[in-house]
Amino acid sequence: MRLLVNEVDAGEAAAIGLERRHGSELLMIEDMAGRRLARRLGLSITGTVGAVLAAADAGLVSEPLDVLEELRAKGGLWLSDAFLNQLRSLLRSAH
Questions:
Q1: Annotated domain spans of the chain
Q2: Over residues 55-80, mean pLDDT
Q3: pTM score, two decimals?
Q4: What is the sign, positive or negative, of the torsion defined by CA atoms of 81, 82, 84, 85?
Q5: How far apart are alpha carbons 40 and 54 in whole angstroms?
Q6: What is the band of 17 on the pLDDT scale with cuts at 50, 70, 90?
Q7: Which residues 6+ apart lie within 8 Å of 16 measured at CB?
Q8: What angle do CA 87, 91, 95 make, to 5 degrees?
Q9: Which residues are 83's β-sheet partners?
């Protein structure tokens, strides 16, 4: 884990280290540096957006964009307007 801390902060290093040790199927990580490192290590990753979209696919969330907007407004999740508009367009075209 010490080597990981040279590239990412302690929280991301711990998450990546645990995933490598226990071999889970998916690592949920938001930090860009952490995501880059995880990809370089060959780990499968997702973030909050991926988790919300997976929940929608599973029928657990009816309006994923509403959930993401609420997380952005009240939960401190940073998503740009441009990203949300692009996602909105993609979701519309998928249905």
A1: 2-46, 61-94
A2: 94
A3: 0.80
A4: positive
A5: 23
A6: confident
A7: 4, 8, 27, 29, 34, 37, 38, 41, 43
A8: 170
A9: none
Q: Within 10 A of 94 (CB to CB), how many other CB atoms are there?
A: 6
Does residue 5 carry a pLDDT above 70? no
* Burial (0-12, 13-18, 19+ Cβ within 10 Å), 45: buried
Nearest-angstrom CA–CA distance, 91 and 95: 7
Q: Please report the beta strands in the chain, taking only residues with DSSP state E, as ranges in sequence order.
A: 27-28, 45-46
34: its two tokens: 């952490």
- The number of beta carbons lying within 10 Å of the beta carbon of residue 79 is 14
Give dist(CA 93, CA 89) in Å, integer. 6
Rounded Cα distance between 29 and 38, Å, is 9
pLDDT tens digits, residue range 41-66?
A: 999 999 999 999 999 999 999 999 99
